[in-house]
Each structure stands twice: as structure tokens, then as C-alpha cells.
Design brief:
Blueprint (H helix, E strand, L loop, with lengths): L15 H6 L3 H12 L1 H38 L5 H49 L8 H12 L1 H31 L2 H30 L1 H14 L5 H6 L3 H53 L5 H42 L20 E10 L6 E11 L3 E6 L5 H8 L7 E6 L2 E2 L5 H6 L1 E4 L10 H6 L9 H11 L1 H6 L21 H14 L4 E5 L7 H14 L4 E5 L3 H4 L4 E6 L2 E6 L1 H7 L2 H10 L4
Parallel strand pairs: 3-8, 3-9, 6-7, 7-8
Antiparallel strand pairs: 1-2, 1-4, 4-5, 9-10
The chain binds adenosine-5'-triphosphate.
């Protein structure tokens, strides 16, 4: 497992500037939310405006009640109607406040869920649009990881930004009331809150920097958690006694992160406490000032309740505003990751695409192809030239790591040659539309994926548009002998595979291989590529599968990779690869006569050594 050096807190610090810069992603974010559900968005915005104005309205009505009571008790006012009127209004406002509060959390919840679904779909689609070579790049994985794992954070961000707008309106309405009576209180208020705001911003950046610089380690932790508690790995872990090895590795890494994070959290809350004490002192200074004003006859008792209530409310609103601000700038840093990921350029699209031939006329040609995997200097393919004629059945053989699979990946355009070119009917394969070009191939990968879906879905994956063509699925299954597997399953083609979901059935390695082979047959493809198609099959199944394969591909072009010479020998031509070069090429008989590597390997296998 490639590991980056453990980070210290000072590594990769995200400055104040980037923290503010990331706020610029918020409009784009809200555009996405707006597109998600316009009605809900408007409802939420409307409710928040109402909710924002309610606190000042309630405080004002409270003042009116207080003044009315003073009128009655001190000045002998006989008409109580103004008092009851105000009490009734306050009651209505309180009920309304509860109602809009609930409406807000309801709309935010639904909108958040819908946004979540949409953004997850975007991430899945984007991953599929990106060049396959990026999938093997660790920096890409980090981006993908952050974009994927911060979904909940983005939903919080939405509520926080909307909440912030609400708090801002509230603050303005309260400030107007305060300015009207005692403008000096505002200055006192802002001064007492500001240091705590700066403190929060500073620590939230540090926490984000830490989380970001530890993305790879967090992925490693997830990976260790996954292999440490997983049905697929349980056998080996038990048998090899790997538990303490894994626990130790997990613990060392997790503790290092925990310690760094703990020291930050402790510092953040200690400073936070200090600055909050400062806030409380200023609140009581203001309170004493207001009491003094009442005692000296400057303001009424009703105004005292309004002012102290407004001041208190303003202070908590401002605190809320600043802490939300730091949370928003923190989450918007993650938002940046999400948009950075969505902005990774999709695969290069050739503007001057040429139409694909309906049927291959000449065939494929590798011309002086060299290839090294991205971020590697190691040439895996070295000056390879060969032709696969239309309708030819070609086989690649060679020892492990010789470059056989790599050649098929180049043919399938998962990667581009570092130099040299690959032609189809005389035209560089890059000039064809990639998706259409790849449609040409029916492929069984050596490391095919075992989808924990039903058998039917597992086979249909080869041509998912035909998922409802039962006959086609059955035919593909017959060709690969998967039908024999199906006949033993309780729910037949509807049998859920794997153990992850209810009523799932695990298959043997060979049974899975038959299912995966059926997937390759689902497409009536022009070219078949089978990489180790029979490696897990028993001898009888292997010869039967191969017989059917030959029948199927009579006039099709095909590439087969195999270590089993019984399979390989039937090919029209065999390419023997060694360390990224073609060592020999010819029919089985020609190569046997050559008496070089092929003949040696064949003889060894025939004698039962391989
Ligand atoms: N994604 C990758 N990134 C970097 N190197 C890779 C990658 N995939 C394969 N390689 C390297 O390329 C070389 C050739 O691998 P390839 O899979 O083509 O061999 P192969 O001939 O198919 O072997 P086998 O018979 O074991 O399947 C190996 O040395 C391998 O380490």
C-alpha cells in the first residue's frame, strides 16, 4: 500500500484567503440546489424570512404588553383591551414561530435528501466520464474520496447558508431597534464578539487542513477497517492470524490522527471559552448601562425589556452568525473539493472523428508501440508491431507480467501508447469515437468484477440495454455454461448473488467465471477479448467452453490470453511475449518447430510442471 508521509499540523495549511475564496463556490452550489427543487427552495426561503422577522416582532409586542401593564397599574388605565390585544398577538406570533421553524426543518430535510441523491448521481456519472488512467492515480482517488464522503457536509452547508441569511435578517431587524434607542450598545456588542469569530475561523482552517492532508491516511484507515471486518477477507485473516497485525497498523495510524485532532479541538474550545467570557462581561456591562438608564428615567420599563431582550438576542444571533460563518467557510472548502472533482476534464473528445467501419475489413495493426503506465518510467511494452487480421483468432502467451493484458488495454483504448500507433482498418483508433469503438468489443477481464446483483443482471451487464431480453441472456449463459450454474440455483436467473444482501448465494470461482464469460457473450460483438477465460474452470468445462467459443467466433476477430496451452494451441496465430516484446509468433505447429520459449513452456505443461 503506497503511503504518504504522515502529516504534521503545519503541513498543507489552508490560508485565510483560500478559506474566503472557497465561499465563491456557494453561488454555484445554490444553483445546483435551486435546480434540484425550485418550489421547496422558495418555500424554505420564504419561511426563513418570516422566521427572521419574528424575534423582533415578539420582543416589540412584549414591550407593548409591559407598557400596557404599567399604564394599568401605575396610571390607573381602565381599558384593558390594548393589553389583551397585545397578548393575543404575541400568542399568534409564538405559534407562527413554531410553525415556520418546523416548516423550515421539513423543507431543508427533503431538499437536502433530494440534493444528496442528485449529487451522488453526478459523482457516479463523472467518475465514468473520466479517463480510466486517472482511476489509478492516488491524487484522483483523494479527490474522489473527499467529493464522495462529504455529501452530508454539503447538506449541512445548505442549511447553514440559508440559516445564515435568516440570522442576518434577524440581526438587521434587531439592530434597527437597538439603534433607535441606544446606538452605543451596538459597538459594545460587535467588539465583544469579533475576537471569538477570528478564533473560530483560525481553528476551522486548521481542522480542515488536517483533515485534507490526511485524506490518504483516512483512506488507508477505511481500507484497514474494510479488510479487518469483511466476509471476503475473514478466511485469510483468521488463518494467517492477521488480526493483531491489522489492529496495530490501524491503531498506530488512527492514534496519530486522533492526537493531532485532539490537540486542535482542545485548543479550539479553550480559546473559545476565554472569548465567550469576554462576551458575557460585555453583556453584563450593557445590562448595567440599560438599568442605569431606566433608573435615571431615560427609558421606560417596557423599553428596558425590549432593549435587554434585543441585546441578549442580538448577542446570541451574532454568535450564531459568526460560528455559522466559520462552519460555512469550513464546509465550503469541502465544496471546493466537490466542484474540483466535477471540473476534472472529461475524456478528450476528438473533434474530427471518423465513422467506424460497420464490419472490420483489414483488421488491427500495432505499429512500433511503446507504453509505460502513467506515473511510471517502466516501459511495459517495447516497440511492438503486429497485425490482427479481420476474423483472425489470435492468442497472447507469456510469463506473468510479460505485458499481455496491457496490450489488450491499449487495444481497448483504456490507455494510449506512449509512442507508436494502433490502427483499425488503416486509421489510428484515436480517430474513432471512443464509446462507439469500445462497443465493438465483448470482453472478459481477468479481474472481472463480481456484482452482488441477480444472475440475470450479472449477465445482462455485458449489454445492459438488453436486460429484458431473456432469450439473449439464456443464450449467453448456454455458451459459457453458466446455464448449468443457474439450474442449481434456487431462484434461477433471479437468484441474488454474493452474501451481502438477503437470500444471496455465493458461487465458486469457476461458477463466477462462467457468469462473467456469459457477460462477454451478451454483446454480439465484432471482436472478442478473453483474458484468462478458463483459469478457474475444471478440465471438462474448459474444453466444452472452448468448443462453444470457437463455434461462436467462427468469423469474428478474437484475442485470447491464456496460460493453458490446450486453449491457446487452437488459435490461428500465437504471439509469445517476453518482457514487453514479441519473442515469437506463429501457429502452434510453427512455434513447436521453432523450439524456443513456446515449445519449452508447452512441453513443461504437457509434462505437468506448469
Ligand atoms: N495499472 C498499472 N500501473 C502500473 N503498472 C502496471 C499496471 N498494470 C500492470 N502493470 C505492470 O505491467 C506489467 C505487465 O502487466 P500485465 O498485466 O500486462 O501482464 P500479463 O502479461 O497480463 O501478466 P499475467 O500473466 O500475470 O496476467 C507488470 O509488470 C505490471 O506490474
Amino acid at each position: 500500500m503506497a503511503r504518504t508521509q504522515p502529516k504534521s499540523l503545519n503541513d498543507q495549511k489552508i490560508g485565510l484567503k483560500s478559506s474566503f475564496d472557497s465561499l465563491f463556490f456557494i453561488p454555484r452550489f445554490f444553483k445546483e440546489i435551486w435546480r434540484t427543487n425550485k418550489t421547496l427552495f422558495l418555500t424554505s426561503a420564504f419561511c426563513r424570512i418570516v422566521a427572521a422577522l419574528l424575534p423582533v416582532a415578539i420582543l416589540w409586542v412584549g414591550k407593548l404588553i409591559f407598557d400596557a401593564i404599567i399604564q394599568i397599574t401605575t396610571h390607573g388605565e381602565k381599558d384593558y383591551s390594548a393589553l389583551w390585544h397585545s397578548v393575543a398577538i404575541e400568542f399568534i406570533l409564538v405559534v407562527l414561530s413554531d410553525l415556520v421553524g418546523r416548516a423550515i426543518s421539513l423543507t431543508d430535510g427533503i431538499l437536502g435528501d433530494q440534493y444528496n441523491i442528485n449529487s451522488s448521481i453526478k459523482i457516479i456519472k463523472k467518475t465514468n466520464e473520466i479517463d480510466i488512467s486517472l482511476l489509478e492515480n492516488s491524487e484522483f482517488y483523494d479527490k474522489l474520496d473527499r467529493a464522495r464522503t462529504q455529501t452530508a457536509g454539503r447538506v449541512d452547508l445548505m442549511s447553514n447558508v440559508l440559516g445564515q441569511a435568516q440570522t442576518t435578517i434577524s440581526i438587521f431587524s434587531l439592530v434597527i431597534g437597538l439603534i433607535y434607542f441606544e446606538p452605543y450598545l451596538i459597538v459594545l456588542l460587535v467588539l465583544s464578539i469579533f475576537p471569538s469569530f477570528i478564533n473560530e475561523v483560525r481553528f476551522s482552517q486548521q481542522q480542515y487542513s488536517l483533515a485534507r492532508s490526511w485524506t490518504s491516511e483516512r483512506r488507508e484507515l477505511d481500507y484497514l477497517r474494510f479488510i479487518g471486518a469483511n466476509d471476503k477477507t475473514a478466511k485469510e485473516i483468521k488463518l494467517f492470524g492477521l488480526t493483531s497485525f491489522l489492529v496495530e497498523r490501524f491503531e498506530t495510524l488512527a492514534t496519530r490522527y486522533f492526537k493531532l485532532n485532539k490537540s486542535l479541538v482542545v485548543k479550539r474550545s479553550s480559546y473559545g471559552f476565554l472569548f465567550n467570557v469576554l462576551g458575557s462581561i460585555s453583556y453584563y456591562a450593557a445590562y448595567v448601562f440599560i438599568i442605569y438608564r431606566v433608573l435615571s428615567g431615560g427609558i421606560t420599563l417596557g423599553e428596558l425589556t425590549f432593549l435587554s431582550g434585543s441585546f441578549n438576542r442580538l448577542m446570541s444571533s451574532l454568535r450564531d452568525f459568526f460560528s455559522k460563518f466559520t462552519r460555512i467557510s469550513e464546509s465550503s472548502l469541502y465544496l471546493k473539493d466537490y466542484f474540483d472533482f466535477l471540473d476534472i476534464p472529461s475524456e478528450y473528445k476528438n473533434e474530427k472523428e471518423v465513422p467506424l467501419p460497420e464490419k472490420i475489413k483489414i483488421g488491427f495493426e500495432f505499429k512500433n508501440v511503446y507504453f509505460a503506465y502513467p506515473e511510471s518510467d517502466n516501459q511495459i511494452v517495447k516497440d511492438i508491431s503486429f497485425v490482427i487480421k479481420a476474423g483472425e483468432k489470435i492468442a497472447f502467451v507469456g510469463q506473468n507480467g510479460a505485458g499481455k493484458t496491457t496490450l489488450t488495454k491499449l487495444l481497448l483504448r483504456f490507455y494510449e501508447p506512449t509512442s507508436g500507433e494502433i490502427l483499425l482498418d488503416g486509421i489510428n483508433i484515436n480517430r474513432y469515437n471512443k464509446a462507439n469503438y469500445q462497443e465493438y468489443f465483448g470482453v472478459l477481464f481477468q479481474d472481472f468484477f463480481k456484482y452482488e446483483f441477480s444472475v440475470k443482471e450479472n449477465i445482462a451487464i455485458g449489454k445492459i440495454d438488453e436486460i429484458n431480453d431473456y432469450e439473449r441472456i439464456q443464450k449467453a449463459a448456454e455458451l459459457s455454461l453458466a446455464n448449468e450454474v443457474v439450474s442449481e440455483l434456487k431462484y434461477g436467473y433471479d437468484q441474488q448473488l454474493g452474501k451481502r444482501f438477503a437470500k444471496g448465494q455465493e458461487l465458486s470461482g469457476g461458477q463466477w467465471q462462467k457468469i462473467a464469460l456469459a457477460r462477454a457473450y451478451m454483446k454480439n460483438a465484432e471482436v472478442m477479448i478473453l483474458d484468462e477465460p478458463t483459469s478457474a474452470l475444471d478440465a471438462k468445462a474448459e474444453s466444452e467452453v472452448f468448443e462453444r467459443f470457437i463455434g461462436l467466433i467462427k468469423d469474428k476477430t478474437s484475442v485470447i490470453i491464456s496460460h493453458r496451452f490446450s486453449t491457446v494451441r487452437q488459435a490461428d496465430r500465437i504471439l509469445v511475449l517476453q518482457e514487453g516484446k514479441i519473442l515469437e509468433s506463429g501457429t502452434h505447429n510453427e512455434l513447436m518447430e521453432n523450439k524456443k520459449l513456446y515449445a519449452q513452456l508447452f512441453t513443461l505443461q504437457a509434462e505437468g510442471y506448469l
